[in-house]
Amino acid sequence: MIRLPFFTPRESPIAALYGDIVAASRAPEAFRHFGVADDFEGRFERLVIVATLVLRRLRALGGEAEPLAQALVDRLFEDLDDGLRRAGVSDLAVGKRVKKLAQGFYGRAEAYTAALETGEGALREVLARNLLSGRVAPAEIHAGLLAEIDAWRRRLDAADLGTLLAGTTLSGD
Fold it and tell me: Treating both helix axes as pointing N-terminal to C-terminal, what angle do 91-118 and 40-61 enclose, rounded to 10 degrees?
């Protein structure tokens, strides 16, 4: 590897935050106890809900947090693109798959945001339809899943931008 003597790569300001989002979305309890399918769709749905909560907080912070919200979305889709390539999806198909994932992401993010603003009943409906793929009735959603989302929301609402960027908000560390 060639090293340039005066070039030090800068780490992305959202790297730790993105790592926190990924770690929270992959928490094993959701797949073991809350009924989330441990497959690509289930992991994608978890990533969407956690990212939606974080993006919601970044929008509320405004100012310098706004361009970081876009950087976070860009990083998320770079990671999805990379994951598809590593899974063996052909170069020609990756673009189409990422476009479809983007449409799904934005549609679900909008639905989750509206449900979070509306209340628990609406959140149960959206979770049953998207996260749990209709396998569980809204009234039967595990209380632990709702508690987890509420805990994330409370931690995020209390966090300032520096705390978010430190990457320890969602895990509660």
Answer: 60
Please give the structure tokens belonging to residue 153.
């929301």
Kindly list the distances between the CA atom of residue 26 and the CA atoms of 10, 43, 109, in Å, as whole numbers in the listed order.
Answer: 27, 7, 18
User: How far is residue 4 from each of residues 11, 24, 38, 53, 122, measured CA to CA in Å?
Assistant: 16, 36, 43, 39, 54
Here the tokens at position 105 are 């992401």
pTM value? 0.89
Question: What is the rounded distance in angstroms from the CA atom of residue 63 to the CA atom of residue 88?
Answer: 40
pLDDT of residue 99: 92
Residue 136 one-letter amino acid = V
- How crowded is the C-beta side of 46, counted as CA atoms within 13 Å? 24
